[in-house]
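My current task is to audit a protein record that another person submitted. I have pasted the whole thing underneath without changing anything:
***
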Amino acid sequence: MPLYRIEKAFFKKYGTIAGVDEAGRGPLAGPVVTAAVILDLNKQIPGLNDSKKLTEKKREELYKIITEEAICWEVKVVSPKIIDEINILQATLFGMEEAVIYLEVKPDYCLIDGNKTPKKLIGFSKAIVKGDAKIASIAAASILAKVTRDRIMLKLHEQFPNYNFKQNKGYPTKEHVAALDKYGVLDCHRRSYKPVQQLTLKF
């Protein structure tokens, strides 16, 4: 499978590889979720791909397979409060560090989606732009992060149906912004984000 080719080359050079990714940098509400995954490269997972290219049903199916067949995996949830305190970039990098640190198996090298490397991972990691479409373990991490975050947003939808988090997942759709204007800002909203900041003044 194409997603495994580059990863196998890194494995040959460095040893055990952990793929790292996040979900939820852009939304106005909800946490940013990070994940780290060490796959068994001898047990390839059919259909593995960037989470954004998969249907919700397929992501759920792959989530189950990944969590059952990966050598180890870890997911971290970084709250809106922390995002507001240290900004979304730093919150994401912090979550990535935590996901790797808490893996049961210590990786020899980390492959990280994006163009930034967390400070605690410098020296044994590489940032790969669009890595979730190139590297199997990053794709797996993207699926775990996305599914976990979506499940959190579904629970928030049950609590606050007026915001339709089930559909928009906290992203700044017209409907979501209109609900913010009508019903106000919730604790799950990121108050440091401009659209929310402006409405916070109103309420």
Summary: The chain has a mean pLDDT of 95.
